[in-house]
């Protein structure tokens, strides 16, 4: 227990931030902010309403999903990959991310009218945030990703009840389970819209568990995932590798095209592995090593190794959004399911992709394995249980199993 608490304390130190809370109250724009950009999004949530327009929703669970349209203003002068949080309230649109419009949507018909007004080639992006996120955290992060990636898609955020507390890891995990059916229903509703041609799901951290569980549910009900869901991007997936293999198989066939972003120096996943029984997380594997390389090839999954990518994130857990090269790769290629093996893909930070079992250098230096530098993870624990080998973990899980012969 002491080491469990120490791991959480280390994570608390690394994730501490100082931005003000309560930024959801809309501010007016003026002629002085004419150079700002705007991102319009639709937000579905299983959070409870806070009763405060400054926050809109809190971290508790609601049996009734809610839908809101939100507009965010983004200043012209900022560093790509960053969220420009205001230093004081109200935000100044000339220098800060700022909410400029909030409107509740009460019916599916109203939601479809909004989508029709904001359609971009019929492409929809559904983003699912990770552990330790407030409502406003997830709204601003999606706005940053959409703006920086220059993606041609209509952004839809699914935000689940996170208490945004380091010590609430288990509550957050149960909240993803609580939200599985709501996300599945949201995806079905979106896919049924005639203005929607294809859907890309992008999930981060613990949100990848929610995404996989909802797709698995859909596959179990229908025998396969809805055909409009073409691409699934899992960034820093906080999922037990063995469980992921089962989820992947049980969603049926045909499946969407899967891309995962991994990094062996991800400190958040190292702590997650420790507190979940020293079980390897999917987002921390080295995809160039066996047996992962062969298993990924067999499953048709593309893995992009971000270990060598450097960002301002001290946890190395949000590289997919904070690296200018990676967020642009998402917007320009992965959103539309394009291959990463042609000569047009060239990144500058030493990034390796494993596509179809073949290592493809899409940076300037081949990636190498780097041990996660979290000292507490390396210390012996009471009743030490050696982790299962990758062969034991994955060999039987990439195939359907029946209860009886």
Write the layout of secondary structure elements.
Blueprint: H1 2-15, E1 37-49, E2 57-74, E3 98-105, H2 108-118, E4 123-128, H3 135-149, E5 154-159, H4 169-178, H5 180-191, E6 198-204, H6 207-222, E7 229-235, H7 241-250, E8 257-262, H8 267-275, H9 292-299, E9 302-305, H10 319-322, H11 324-332, E10 352-355, E11 358-361, H12 375-378, H13 390-394
Helix pairs in contact: 1-8, 3-11, 5-6, 6-7
Largest sheet composition: 11 strands, mixed
Derived from helix and strand composition plus strand pairing, the structural class reads alpha/beta
Element-level helix/strand string: HEEEHEHEHHEHEHEHHEHHEEHH
Please give the count of helices: 13
Find the count of extended strands (DSSP E, 2+ residues).
11
Estimated radius of gyration: 20 Å
Average residue pLDDT:
82
- Spans of 5+ residues with little confidence (pLDDT < 50)? 1-16, 364-388
Between the first and last Cα atoms, what is the distance in angstroms? 42 Å
Tell me the strand order in the biggest sheet: 3-2-1-5-4-6-7-8-9-10-11
Overall form: globular
What is this entry, summarized?
This protein has 405 residues and is α/β, with parallel strands linked by helices. Helix content is 31%, strand content 20%.
Give an overview in words.
This protein is of the alpha/beta class and 405 residues long. The protein has 13 helices and 11 strands. The chain has helices spanning 2-15, 108-118, 135-149, 169-178, 180-191, 207-222, 241-250, 267-275, 292-299, 319-322, 324-332, 375-378, 390-394, and strands at residues 37-49, 57-74, 98-105, 123-128, 154-159, 198-204, 229-235, 257-262, 302-305, 352-355, 358-361. The protein has an 11-stranded mixed β-sheet. A hairpin with a 7-residue loop joins strand 1 and strand 2 (57-74). Helix 1 (2-15) packs antiparallel against helix 8 and helix 3 (135-149) crosses helix 11 (324-332). The longest helix is centred in the middle third of the chain and has 16 residues, at 207-222. The radius of gyration is 20 Å and the shape is globular.
């Amino acid at each position: 227990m002491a080491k469990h608490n120490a791991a959480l304390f280390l994570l608390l130190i690394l994730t501490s931030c100082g931005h003000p809370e309560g930024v959801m109250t809309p501010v007016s724009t003026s002629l002085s902010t004419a150079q700002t950009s705007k991102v319009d999004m639709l937000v579905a949530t299983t959070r409870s309403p806070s009763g405060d327009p400054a926050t809109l929703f809190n971290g508790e669970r609601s049996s009734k999903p809610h839908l809101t349209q939100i507009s965010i203003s983004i200043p012209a002068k900022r560093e790509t990959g960053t969220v420009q949080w205001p230093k004081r309230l109200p935000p100044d649109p000339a220098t800060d991310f700022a909410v400029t419009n909030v409107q509740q949507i009460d019916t599916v018909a109203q939601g479809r009218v909004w989508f029709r007004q904001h359609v971009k080639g019929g492409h929809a992006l559904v983003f699912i945030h990770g552990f330790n996120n407030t409502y406003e955290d997830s709204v601003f992060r999606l706005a940053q990703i959409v703006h920086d990636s220059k993606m041609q898609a209509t952004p839809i955020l699914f935000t689940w009840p996170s208490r945004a507390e380091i010590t609430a890891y288990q509550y957050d995990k149960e909240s993803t389970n609580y939200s599985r059916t709501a996300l599945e229903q949201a995806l079905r509703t979106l896919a049924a819209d005639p203005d929607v041609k294809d859907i890309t799901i992008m999930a981060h951290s613990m949100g990848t568990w929610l995404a996989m569980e909802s797709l698995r549910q859909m596959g179990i009900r229908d025998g396969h995932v809805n055909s409009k869901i073409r691409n699934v991007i899992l960034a820093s997936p906080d999922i037990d590798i063995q469980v992921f293999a089962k989820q992947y198989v049980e969603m049926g066939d045909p499946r969407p095209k899967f891309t995962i972003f991994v990094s062996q120096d991800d400190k958040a996943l190292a702590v997650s592995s420790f507190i979940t029984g020293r079980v390897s997380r999917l987002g921390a594997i080295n995809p160039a090593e066996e047996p992962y390389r062969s298993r990924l090839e067999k499953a048709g999954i593309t893995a992009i190794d971000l270990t060598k990518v450097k960002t301002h994130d001290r946890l190395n857990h949000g590289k997919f959004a904070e690296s200018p090269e990676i967020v642009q790769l998402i917007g320009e290629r992965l959103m539309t399911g394009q291959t990463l093996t042609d000569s047009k893909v060239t990144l500058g930070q030493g990034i390796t992709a494993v596509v179809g079992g073949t290592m493809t250098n899409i940076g300037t230096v081949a990636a190498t394995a780097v041990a996660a530098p979290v000292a507490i993870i390396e210390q012996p624990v009471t009743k030490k249980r050696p982790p299962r080998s990758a062969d034991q973990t994955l060999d039987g899980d990439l195939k359907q199993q029946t209860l009886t012969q």
